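hiii so my PI (J.) wants the whole complex modelled not just the main chain, which honestly fair. so below is everything: three entries, each one labled with what it is. i double checked the lines twice but i was tired so who knows lol
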Amino acid sequence: MSHPAEGAGAAVEARGLEKWYGALPAVRGVDLSIAPGTFLTIFGPNGAGKSTLLRMLCGAVRPTRGSVFIGGEEIRNTEDEGWRRRIGLLSHQAFLYPGLSAAENLDFFARLYGLADRAARIEAGLRDVGLWERRDDRVRTFSRGMQQRLALARTLLHDPEVVFLDEPYTGLDPHASAMLRQVLDRLKDGRRTVVLVTHNLSQGLEQADRVAVQVGGRWMSDEPAGDIDPATWERVYTGRVAAAA
Amino acid sequence: MAAYLAQAWAVARKDLLLEARSRERFVAMATFAVLVAVVFSFALDPGVRASTIAGAMLWVTVLFAGTLGLGRAFALEREADALTGVLVSPIPRGAFYLGKLAANLAIVTCVELVIFPVYALFFGLRYAGALGGLAIVVVLATIGFMALGTLFAAMAAHSRLGETLIPILLLPLLIPVVIFAASATQRLLVGRPFSEIESSVRMLLAFDLIFLFVCTAAFGAVMEE
Amino acid sequence: MNVPVDENASLAGTRRWSVGLGFLAAIALVWGFWMIFFYAPTEREMGIVQRIFYVHVPSALVAYLAFGIVALCSLGYLWLRDERLDAISVCAAELGVIFATIVLVTGPLWGKIAWGAWWVWDARTSFTLLLWFIYVGYFVLRQATEDPERGKRFAAVLGIVGAVDIPLIHMSVQWFRTQHPKPVVLKPEGPTAAPEMVQTLLVNMLALTLLFFSLLLARYVVERLSRRIDAARVAAQLRPAA
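here's the output for the full assembly
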């Protein structure tokens, strides 16, 4: 796996990122730079501030201090939302309306993104996740795995350059997990940047180009995936988490 | 601007589609409003001529029924946390607000279309001579009501107190709407000419424009995580 | 994007100002109360109860001043996200509610004699009552969120919306009903009341304004210190865990 020069033309960059909830720190000073086309996995125990970090990177949570850049453009809470078109967020929550059908959900989000060729994109998206036949059924009637596949179609609808994944496997059965993994594998096309956050060591290691560990709101380690031996990784990880405590 | 309105429309369309399917807010609000009318007719002394206080009764009913519905306005955004999906999308916060406002307006207007005939039926009110004037007063007052209501409903959805917060915050701020709408309605109902309520209508219009602007601008500060 | 705040900056200067203003306020209050009881003449029509007006009117003006400060600091907070502006807003809102309560209590005491009823829905009484409710709502809203930062933001939005609504409420209640005694001192064409009355009012106005700023600064110091204590307590809890 080749790594383009760090910093220059980074897909995602963060400087001195901090988030405090009142006097409680969630993220305490994270600097990172992700080259385009990289698949970065961030591991960490519960309460490590991974989700908060991810949500700051995609502009859903405002940092207490520090700044985030998407493709060199600084994230701000202004009306200039160009960078928002370049990102997608998939979480363990589906971000869908259970009272609408699959197609209506995608149509709503396509309108928010101002996409011109809505019908074609919706059809392609639904076929991609194998839900075309169920397009007119309410999302309320979908199983957890189907909802998550539809959520994936929503995330990729506007063809984002950067995809953020926040514990996407939570609550999925093995079959649905395998299906999700297949689609995520296809995201690794060398062009798209993916940031995956998870506490589950069995997911996200084999796809990653780069692996980081976050504990207690701090960045503990950050290394190319090639340096990691999957056989000993669990022991190494547990050691790092214990050392941080 | 066209893109801004298209995004606002997408939000309103989605809310109305959901409401058209479940009808949960409309049914709850309309039932509540009719019940308030029933309660009024039993609570009032038979000696009182209802037509002399109809303006007040109508607007108290609209206000309470509307507040009831506002509590649900953001519930559907939170069900599967669709709100986060909307917030990471490129929709300006102001457009999101205007979309929610438009849907709330449409639903409350439907409820008003039930309230006014029911009051006419129960209390023998006659709107025939003043339909145009009444329509103007109702539309302007409802816009002002929902402009503030949508903003506070969004706050309430993110708070521990939830829907109970809405009337506490909203009612004192809506006193100008109540004063101008109730008095104008009352005058129209007793057959006064429109020229007599012109100043009230102007005040309602001013209230609407001011709060449409302020709330659209302030919505970003409410929606941020 | 965010203004860094030196959380350990000394508040001693602010405290000294508060104590200094407090001394001045105490002197002015003693002087003002002496004037109320021994200097100002008894009003011919309303009698002795009219003297409550020297507390009633300055309290109302101080309450309006407080709500003005809340609005400005709320706007500043949403813009700069400076904790200090939020702290000033809270303190000013608290004092505003207290002074508005004084207005709402002294008003009926006077009204019972002058109007023959404890409560009359005249324009200015209704207006003050509505203000009181808006700013009580301000505190309910602050307490109602899990995340304190969100509570501050919401309260700031209410501070601004409330301030924008105040002129409209004022106009509407004015239009609705006016029974309140017209201003006799602050009329554009010059005061018509006895000069002793005017002097008494102005001294009391000065006294309550000084008292307000002294209390505001004192309350501000307490607010900042209590936030530091909260932060330190959380930090102490985190240390053994992290």
